[in-house]
Amino acid sequence: MSATALEVRLPRPPWSVRGIVVLALLATAILSAAYLQLGTHSLVPSAPGLHAAQKFFVRALSPAVAHESDVPAGTPPLLVNALRATGMTVFIAVEAMSLAIVIGLLLAFAASSAWWMGDPSGAQSWWLRVVRRGIVPALYGTARIVIAVMRSTHELLWAVLFLAAFGLTQSSAVLAIAIPFGGTLAKVFSEILDEAPRDAATALRSAGASPVQVFFFGLLPRALPDMIAYAFYRFECALRASAVLGFFGFPTLGYFIAASFENLYYGEVWTYLYTLFVLVLVVEAWSGALRRRMAI
Amino acid sequence: MTREETVRALYRRRPRSIFLRVSCAAVMVLVALSWGSGGFAADAFLSERRLRNLQRFLTELRPHPLQGREFDVAVAWQWTLDILADRGLAAAGATLAISMLAIVLAAAGAALLCLPAARNFAEPDAFSVSLRPPPPAKRALWKSLTIGSRSAFVFARAVPEYIWAFLLLILLGPSAWPAVLALAIHNGGILGKLASEVIEDLDRGPLAALHAAGASRSQIAVTAIFPLVFNRTLLFFFYRWETCVRDATVLGLLGIVSLGYWIQDARARNHYDEMFLLVLMGAALVIVADVVSAIARGSVRRSS
User: Fold this and answer.
1) What is the pLDDT along chain A (296 residues), one digit of tens a residue?
2) Which of A35, A52, A174 is nearest residue B170 as measured by Cβ atoms?
3) B107 and A25 in contact (C-beta within 8 Å)?
4) A60: DSSP letter
5) Which residues in chain B touch residue A261, judged by CB atoms under 8 angstroms apart?
6) A161 interface with B at CB cutoff 8 Å
7) Domain ranges in chain A?
């Protein structure tokens, strides 16, 4: 029996939603390319660009193990320098994340609706009613707006603002990462809290616990594994952000990548890039293992 | 057994993991070391010199035509409109266009590479119920395809998009391509990883049924895998697009004409009022993109 004999034609609409979505996205991409006046000709590397790229990528196989030029006496060896830059990258990321988690938890508590909405016990006294109907929703709305504002500006733009306001200090770098990351953590934490299983919370509530007790003993423990897993993922992002802040002059890995690149010491660039790569991989493996252990 | 004894017995049987404890300790040591290293010093941060700097910065945030004058809404509005008409709106358009082109390219690359990266798709007798072990050469070939595409994803997303753009700018020279490609590479790595995980989580039944009916691997991919993973990956697509808008703004700091370029330009000229206006405009753009993406994700969720 030939394959065509088995063919069954099912009635179907002449268009499919998926097809339209894909075509619309492709059309958006083409329109965007037209708006940016991007042709394929500007995709072809220029001759000097190609030459530089060739020299750069050849060094990928032989990263530098010592400085590629004479350095002033007292400069630490390249590998020590890479380790120091890594330490700085980690320190700034950890400081920023610990601030961001505190900010995120406080705002998430205010921006999560799970612990105060639909409370069956009702308001017994007039001031409790005021708190539930007026203050808590107001707090909720304010927290949402604060989160949106913190998140809407990229950490590098916060860094640009803080550099102009305070100058080049480590605190500027830490705050620049902590603010947008705190906002993102708050948003995701509040979503995790709202979607966490409510079994324990309902049981506690019917046993007469107050909303705050329900939050800390019913909701938070159920949501904690997901929250820790997400915080670890954001820590990976904070490491990358902290490395990139080096491009603005903070002594993290990005600073040395930019400096070596501009001096055409491509071997050194690869040493620093590989260091960053290993750092990110180690943290990714760690957080992956943690996530698997906590999923049980 | 009394209630106290039950509680105590439950407490003794609680799950304990050495790995979790060591991780906990490591996190605490890291936090203590970082804060103890003294880099973050509030007193230096709030020293007199820095406070004076801050005060100067805050006075310079006042729109230029209003410096040293009483605040006038009409003048401030005119100043805002002038900057927006001159470069703000065009730069915002470029930022959006960069993000959209980049995310579509990223999705296209991820769509191609996520199939070999999915372990249930990339095996010799995929979806079949044969008990005969496949030839080792064939198995090694598929295995190497999986490892290859997975390490491509890892490398693509381990390098931050800012560094990709920095490297591509040298290679391609000034146009919007370095920003587009940098975002496409980084997000392609993320989308590819997520999409391949969605494929691996697919129910095996429908795919095996198609295979048993005689469908080839590519037919299964087009008629079953692609439709089944479409909605979930579309959620990731819009979620990453939000991030792309944010990042496209910032890549301009490298000299690519998005909002970041003009932010950097205003900063270099010490026009902090203009810089602040453009940062606010970038924030507005990101909030708009967040809302659009939330609406799009909501409609995808409702239709699935």
Assistant:
1) 445 555 667 666 667 788 888 999 999 999 999 988 887 777 777 777 788 878 888 888 888 888 877 777 777 888 888 999 999 999 999 999 999 999 999 998 888 776 655 554 555 667 777 777 778 788 888 888 999 889 889 999 999 888 888 888 888 899 999 999 999 999 999 888 888 888 888 888 888 888 778 888 888 888 888 888 889 889 988 999 999 999 988 989 999 998 988 888 888 999 998 898 889 889 888 888 887 777 64
2) A52
3) yes
4) G
5) 166, 170
6) yes
7) 78-295
* The CATH number, out of the four listed (1.10.287.1700, 1.10.10.1590, 1.10.10.10, 1.10.3720.10), of the domain defined by the range A78-295: 1.10.3720.10
Which residues, at least 6 apart from B283, have a Cβ–Cβ distance to it below 8 Å? A149, A152, A153
Gyration radius (Cα) of chain B, Å: 27
Residues contacting B263, CB < 8 A, separation 6+ = A157, A160, B252, B253, B275, B278, B279, B282
The answer to whether the Cβ–Cβ distance between A36 and B98 falls below 8 Å is: yes
CA geometry: angle at A12 spanning A8 and A14, to 5°? 125
Place of tokens 């894909």: A22
CA distance A146 to chain B (A): 12
Domains annotated on chain B, with CATH: 75-303 (1.10.3720.10)
Q: Is A46 on the interface with B (CB under 8 A)?
A: yes
Residue of A nearest to B244 (CA): A154
Q: Does A135 touch chain B (CB under 8 A)?
A: no
Answer yes or no: do A45 and B98 touch at CB < 8 A.
no
Of B58, B160, B230, the CB nearest to A243: B160
Task: Please list every residue in chain A whose beta carbon sits closer than 8 Å to the beta carbon of residue B177.
Answer: 38, 42-43
Least Cα distance to B290 among A152, A184, A200 occurs for: A152
Written in H, E and C, the secondary structure of A218-237 is: HHHHHHHHHHHHHHHHHHHH
Q: Which residues of A touch B34 (CB under 8 A)?
A: 90-92, 94-95, 98
CA A136 to chain B, closest CA, distance in angstroms equals 24
Do the Cβ atoms of B124 and B138 come closer than 8 Å? yes
Beta-carbon separation of A247 and B17 below 8 A: no
* Nearest-10 crossing angle of helices A136-152, B272-303: 110
Does residue A268 sit at the B interface (CB-CB below 8 Å)?
no
* Chain A CB contacts of B59 below 8 Å: none
